[in-house]
Amino acid sequence: MHEPPIQQIVCCMGQPVSGNPSQFMMERAFAAAGLDWRYLTLEVAPEDLGDAVRGMRAMGFRGGNFTLPHKVAVVKYLDRLSEAAELMGAVNCVSIENGELIGENTDGKGFVESLRQMTDPSGKRVAIFGAGGAARAIAVELGLSGAQSITVINRTRERGEALVSLLRERVEVEATFVLWDGELEIPAEADVIINGTSIGLGDPQARLPIVADSFDARQVVADVVFHPVRTRFLREAAERGCKTLDGLGMLVNQGVIGFRIWTGVEPDRAVMREAVEEFLEV
Ligand code: NDP
């Protein structure tokens, strides 16, 4: 009798998950690699998360991505965490190996992999706007990648100071907090400047309260926001001669890392970037 192979499944759990380009990107990458895998997007309410994670294991899923609001809550349902996920206390990528649920955080790694295409983070002085989930993941990963110092600039003092304490005490990197309470000059000594806030999301004209003329042409400037791709922050930096890195690079690279973790295969990055651009119509 003909036995059809069992299709391998990974999923994305969030709330809501609509408008998420990951499924489009991953399924294109599976097809390009000749893998008969599926990537399901599943809307899961916070109170159902434990059941949903147990269901992944019961149904033989190979893993999954976790988006808001589950990145922190999912940790308690996992068997072990990578070093970075443990430091961040947040997981966006789970793999299931021999029935064991392993949590990783690929947001920061995706950013660093994207940054490496432009500059080596080792020895660099970094300034990051924001101290939420994305900024935290990026700052920890840059610290682990050998950044010389990290300046955290945030509107809410407690959140910014908590990230600085984590960086100093657990990641052991030089870190400073700057309160963001008005138009701020870009720190002149920084080599890499990152917008890790949600300012600019869905609004090409939204501006960070910064003095745009304080960008220095030698600085590499990056944004986590990927929709629109050319944010005002990046446009203002590019106009002053800076090299810029858009949020799509981070998105695609976190997908590349997840793909590698689940399948053990190196995906075609260009296919993934193309798929995301097609999805976002850019
Ligand atoms: P969080 O809600 O955890 O954090 C948001 C951050 O933005 C906080 O530091 C907040 O400051 C700051 N912020 C928001 N509005 C303002 C404002 N008006 N003025 C000053 N600061 C502000 O969100 P995430 O970290 O999860 O996500 C941030 C962005 O990163 C989103 O746009 C998301 O789409 C993007 N992202 C991109 C990824 C990619 O692959 N490219 C991956 C993950 C996220 P405060 O602490 O003061 O509230």
DSSP strand count: 14
**Oligomeric assembly:** single chain
Q: Report the average pLDDT across residues.
A: 95
Global morphology: globular
Q: Biggest β-sheet, characterized?
A: 6 strands, mixed
In short:
The protein is of the alpha/beta class.
Give a verbal description of the structure.
- This protein is of the alpha/beta class and 282 residues long.
- The protein has 2 domains: 129 residues, Leucine Dehydrogenase, chain A, domain 1 (Rossmann fold, 3-Layer(aba) Sandwich), CATH 3.40.50; 139 residues, Rossmann fold.
- The protein starts with 7 loop residues before the first strand and ends with a helix.
- It binds NADPH dihydro-nicotinamide-adenine-dinucleotide phosphate.
- NADPH dihydro-nicotinamide-adenine-dinucleotide phosphate binds next to α4, α5 and α8.
Task: List its salient traits.
single chain; 282 residues; alpha/beta; Rossmann fold; 2 domains; six-stranded mixed sheet; six-stranded parallel sheet; 14 strands; 36% helix; 22% strand; binds NADPH dihydro-nicotinamide-adenine-dinucleotide phosphate
